[in-house]
Amino acid sequence: MKLALRELRRRPSRFAVAAGVLTLIVVLLSFLGGLLDGLFLGSTGALSAQRADVFVYSANSRDSFLRSRIEPDVRAEVAAVEGVDTVGGLGIGLLTAAVPGQQDPADVALIGFEQPATGIPAPPPDGQAFADRRLETAGVRVGQTLEIGRSRTPIRVVGWVRDSNYLLQGGLWVNADTWRATVSAARPDLRVADGVMQVLVVSGSGTPASLAERIDAATAGATRSLSRDDAILSIPGTKEQRSTFLQIIFTTLAVAAMVIGLFFSLLTLERTGLYGVLKALGSSSRQLFGGVVAQAVLVTVVALVIGEILTIGLTAIAPSSIPIELTASRSAFVAVGMLAASVAGSVVSLRRVVRIDPASAIGTSS
Amino acid sequence: MTDTDDLTDDTGVCRRGSTTSASAVRRFGARYGGRCISASVVERKEDVFLAIRELARAKLRFILLGGAIGLLVFLILFQQALLGGLITQFIGALRNQSATVLVYGSDARRNLEGSRVDPSTVDAVRAVDGVADAGPLGQGTFTARADGALADATLLGYRLGGPGRPTSLNAGRLPETDFEAVVSDGDSSKGFTLGRSVTIEPDGRAIRIVGVATDARYSATPTLFVSYATYEAARTTANPDAGPITPSAVAVTVDADGDPGAVAGRITAQVPGTEALTRDEAISSSPGVSSVQQSFYVILGLFYIVVPLVAGLFFLIITFQKADTLTLLRALGARPSMLIRNLLAQVVVVVLGGVVLATALLAGAAQGTKSIGVKVDPTAIGVTTAVVLGLALISSLAAIRRVLAIDPLRAVTGKDVLG
Question: What is the pTM of this model?
Answer without folding.
Answer: 0.77
